[in-house]
Design a protein that fits this description.
The complex is a heterotrimer of chains A (about 375), B (about 170) and C (about 180). Chain A has about 375 residues and is mainly α. Chain A is built from 13 helices and no strands. In chain A, helix 2 packs antiparallel against helix 3 and helix 9 packs antiparallel against helix 10. The longest helix of chain A has about 35 residues. Chain A is globular and about 105 Å long. Chain B starts with a helix and ends with a helix. Chain B folds into two domains: about 80 residues, NADH-ubiquinone/plastoquinone oxidoreductase chain 6, subunit NuoJ (Four Helix Bundle (Hemerythrin (Met), subunit A), Up-down Bundle), CATH 1.20.120; about 40 residues. By secondary structure, chain B is mostly helical. With about 180 residues, chain C is an alpha+beta fold. In chain C, helix 5 crosses helix 6. A three-stranded mixed beta sheet of chain C has the order 4-1-6. Chain C has a three-stranded antiparallel beta sheet with strand order 2-3-5. Chain C contains six helices and six strands. Chain C has a domain of about 120 residues: Alpha-Beta Plaits, CATH 3.30.70. Helix content of chain C is about 30%, strand content about 20%. The chains are: A mainly alpha (about 375), B mainly alpha (about 170), C alpha+beta (about 180). Chains in contact: A-B, A-C. At the A-B interface, helix 5, helix 6 and helix 7 of A face helix 2 and helix 3 of B.
Chain lengths: ~375, ~170, ~180
């Protein structure tokens, strides 16, 4: 079981010792970096391709139909067919569009999506770069995505794109704040930004999701993660029936494929980070660590796709109201509660934090109830006769 | 490891040249929107330099704040205030001579100052520790911290008041 | 409880997802072309000419009523004639153009000899527009057993009518 757990680390080590026999001294570090980077660069797009297939089949089953199952057994070659289709499509750039920005936006938007993969701990000892600022790196990169969506919208010179882009940017910056605030309790309890340290602090069965502030923090982080990736029910910016296609209306072929790839890689990396911070990363009994990690990540991805099959879209004012009026105060109170929890002793801290959280939740719910319209009375002109 | 050290130096200088090139593009391009994009790249390059100098926390914060928040603000400002019909308003400068004179004076003061400064660091560097920064902010520097947050609050309220239409 | 509606909705979808692997009502896809939906009896697509025992005994007498009644005029009929030129009660040429035929079934309704009926075949795509889509008499002939197989109720009714007409009329007692 130990070797299965470390199978990727051992494979890399044996590859390095084999390569060192005929390569000069200074190239070992470069080779080690190259192996990690190649593994991620292969894993990322392949994951994204098969995530698109998984989504289509899952949403199809929810909607009483098969997903794609023609192209290969069970539809497994469908992503390759999609890739070929997108590569061979004609690349149309509108005449009035800003050519430089139109070209640059899809290219640069994939970069943060790929870079986040380098701080995700896939298993015990399996992380590409153990940065001392792991989570800060993730937050920083996910906040750079907003500009490029806006550049894409502006460069298309299309009113629908601009509107979709502005809504998308507004949504992303409003949901970033509860996201950061729901990560901070974990940092408070662990005391370090590094993802490896965060996972190791949840050893055994004390995952952070089993604590009172952890439940709320997990829910807030997951919901804001879904909003950051622009997925249903928060996908007003790119809903197919709302606004043609939002900020990526004018993109065809490979550029659209890059946007699509960035969205799915972001889905995977947000699920992976939520699993790392709240669900214990690769901790778990009896199965190898990377198997646990993938089980947790794919469980969260399944929930995201389940959301997509179930809910209608939120309207833009409902979306923003949810972030600013509900999630932000709840995240602030959650931070306070996490501080209280750390400082009190064991039975008292759970009770006190539960009471504070339940009271806040109910208060916010009561404050955010939609107003019922007043009962209408009609007066007719000839009612007095 | 001497090859590796030289590889690091070469790549560091390459990144520096790259950042400098993008910065020159920022100030010389005629299209305002392109200038904003190049500014975002310049700030990302500065974050990369911070990574080279082992100041990882500062690099992360630089990307999070500058590229994530401030560049969004700059691009929104450009979009909302520029004349939308004409994308490439020529930003020609009729004041080249005064600009060069000012630049000459400034470099005359700054370059000897940079050359005379003792840049050597003998003690081993400590990587920035977020815990220490947090403790310093809440301990030694709590008063500036609270004043800054108050200033931000006042700026927010002022922006809302200024931009509200008279009703 | 707050959020209960959301959870109920998600449970409905989950039930649909899980049961779609087990029950047939929750996965109603028909995998064409490996399986086909059975068509109803009165489904009409393209006409065919009916013969009783041998292809030469076709019921059509080339009366030309179907060609006159056809709305887009897709039927072309030329009456056969023997060696002296006397016309016979048989068509020499009976062409229906599939690219013009609109599958309305009027030819079946007006035929007084029960000679032309609408078939159930719909997979009739061809590669050549002019050479392959013009159906000649030989392509249109199908046996009466085929008719009884695809449309049993109509076939039974028409066979009964034909048998009743074929029997000599019983002499009726005259009432004075």
């Amino acid at each position: 079981m130990e070797t299965i757990d470390q199978v990727f680390v051992l494979a890399k080590r044996s590859l390095m010792t084999w390569a060192q026999s005929f390569l000069p001294e200074w190239s070992t570090i470069i080779l080690s970096i190259l192996i990690s980077v190649t593994a991620i660069a292969v894993f990322g797009p392949v994951t994204m391709m098969y995530l698109t297939l998984l989504e289509r089949k899952l949403v199809g089953r929810i909607q009483n139909r098969y997903g794609p199952n023609r192209v290969g057994f069970w539809g497994l070659l469908q992503p390759i067919a999609d890739g070929v289709k997108m590569l061979t499509k004609e690349d149309i750039v509108p005449t009035n569009a800003d050519k430089f920005a139109h070209f640059l936006a899809p290219v640069v938007i994939v970069i943060p999506a790929l870079l986040i993969f380098s701080v995700i701990p896939f298993g015990r000892g399996m992380i590409a770069v153990d940065l001392s600022i792991g989570i800060l790196f993730f937050l920083a990169l996910s906040s750079t995505t907003t500009i490029w969506i806006f550049v894409a919208a502006w460069a298309s010179r299309n009113k629908f794109s601009l509107l979709g882009g502005m809504r998308s940017v507004a949504q992303m910056i409003s949901y970033e704040i509860p996201m950061v605030l729901s990560i901070v309790p974990v940092l408070l309890v662990v005391g370090s930004f590094s993802t490896v340290t965060i996972v190791e602090a949840q050893s055994g069965w004390n995952w952070f999701v089993f604590t009172p502030w952890g439940v709320v923090g997990f829910l807030i982080f997951f919901l804001t993660g879904v909003a950051e990736v622009n997925r249903t029910p928060f996908d007003l910016a790119e809903g197919e029936s709302e606004i043609v296609a939002g900020f990526h209306t004018e993109y065809s072929g490979m550029k659209f494929a890059l946007f699509y790839m960035a969205e799915f890689m972001n889905t995977f990396s947000i699920s992976a980070i939520v699993a790392t911070m709240y669900l214990g990363g690769w901790q778990g009994p009896w199965l190898p660590s990377w198997v646990w990690f993938f089980i947790k990540t794919y469980a969260l991805i399944f929930v995201m796709m389940w959301f997509r099959g179930t809910f209608p879209r939120l309207r833009v004012d409902q979306l923003m109201g949810f972030a600013w009026k509900f999630l932000l105060p709840l995240a602030l109170v959650n931070l306070l509660v996490a501080g209280i929890w750390t400082n009190l002793s064991t039975p008292k801290n759970n009770i006190v934090s539960l009471i504070i959280l339940v009271v806040t939740f109910n208060l916010l719910y009561w404050a955010n109830r939609p107003e019922m319209p007043k009962k209408r009375t009609y007066r007719y002109a000839y009612a007095d006769e | 490891m001497s090859f590796f050290g030289s590889l690091a130096t070469v790549s560091f200088y390459a990144v520096l040249v790259g950042v400098l090139a993008v910065a020159i593009l920022t100030v010389t391009t005629r299209n305002l929107f392109h200038a904003a994009i190049f500014l975002a790249f310049t700030l990302l390059g500065v974050a990369l330099i911070y990574f080279f100098l082992h100041a990882e926390f500062l690099a992360g914060v630089q990307i999070l704040l500058y590229v994530g928040a401030i560049m969004t603000l700059v691009i929104f400002a450009i979009m909302l205030t520029a004349k939308i019909g004409d994308p490439s308003m020529p930003q020609s400068n009729h004041q080249r001579l005064p600009a060069f004179v000012g630049l000459a004076i400034l470099s005359f003061i700054l370059i000897p100052a940079i050359l005379k400064m003792p840049w050597k660091t003998e003690d081993a560097f400590q990587t920035t520790n977020a815990v220490q920064i947090g403790k310093a902010l809440m301990g030694e520097f709590v008063f500036p911290f609270e004043v800054i947050s108050l200033v931000l609050l006042v700026a927010l309220i002022g922006a809302i008041v200024v931009s509200r239409s008279d009703q | 409880m707050f959020g209960w509606g959301v959870i109920k909705g998600m449970l409905v979808t989950l039930k649909n997802f899980i049961l779609s692997y087990f029950t047939k009502e929750r996965l109603t896809t028909v995998q064409y072309p490996e399986e086909r939906l059975p068509v109803k009896e009165r489904f009409r697509n393209f006409p065919f000419l009916i013969y009783d025992n041998k292809p030469e005994d076709l019921r059509c007498v080339s009366c030309d009523i179907c060609a006159k009644e056809c709305p887009p005029k897709c039927i072309t009929i030329v009456r056969d004639s023997d060696e002296q030129g006397k016309p016979l009660k048989r068509p020499k040429v009976f062409d229906i153009d599939f690219s013009i035929c609109m599958n309305c079934g009027i030819c079946e309704e007006v035929c007084p000899f029960d000679a032309i009926f609408m078939d159930h075949e719909f997979e009739l795509a061809k590669f050549g527009r002019f050479e392959d889509l013009n159906y000649r008499k030989e392509d249109l002939l199908k046996p009466a057993e085929h008719f009884a197989k695809i449309r049993p109720q109509d076939a039974a009714r028409i066979e009964a009518k034909r048998r009743a007409k074929a029997q000599p009329a019983t002499p009726e007692t005259k009432t004075q």
